[in-house]
Amino acid sequence: xxxxxxxxxxxxxxxxxxxxxxxxxxxxxxxxxxxxxxxxxxxxxxxxxxxxxxxxxxxxxxxxxxxxxxxxxxxxxxxxxxxxxxxxxxxxxxxxxxxxxxxxxxxxxxxx
Amino acid sequence: xxxxxxxxxxxxxxxxxxxxxxxxxxxxxxxxxxxxxxxxxxxxxxxxxxxxxxxxxxxxxxxxxxxxxxxxxxxxxxxxxxxxxxxxxxxxxxxxxxxxxxxxxxxxxxxxxxxx
Lengths: 112, 116
Description:
The complex is a heterodimer of chains A (112) and B (116). By secondary structure, chain A is an all-beta fold. Chain A has strands spanning 5-7, 10-14, 19-24, 33-38, 45-50, 56-59, 62-67, 72-77, 86-94, 99-102, 106-111. In chain A, strand 6 (56-59) and strand 7 form a beta hairpin. Chain A starts with a strand and ends with a strand. Chain B is mainly β.
């Protein structure tokens, strides 16, 4: 059974703080890792699709790194803003069936 | 360009009734995925369909659940004889027919099913 773990489960930070969370996934048969941002009452929205070991992707104040050999990815948010409050999901692409295996998510709350 | 559409957004059924959840993928997308979020749990894969074909149904409960994606019209997730444990949010996602298989999936707003 493929397992994707995210930590921490929740995080409360002040506006302006920088923060990061972790996603652990199986290191064998790796094809891709997805990061999604999920705001309450909205649809999950893709942030990054990462495929190469050592890859680093950036979108505004949010960036992500990937280590496929040891099976982890970090998501960083620089200078958190209240609008960054959301649940951040990572998902491992299972090439056996073409599906995404999601972690439980990290719920981020940014206080003004 | 409209995103992934799901309807209804909220559905209430009594135990033993049938629930039909609809998903219209983004224009031009021919791959559809259904995920379920049970209370206090994360998103769990249910089924992956392409037009008129079920590609992977490894996440579907063995009984009462079925899914289809006909040549014309939306994808349908059907739950027969619903039980309270079926109460969950059901999300549909779609991806385009070209490009790598691990392409970004675009999610709909979900259908929240409540079984009384």
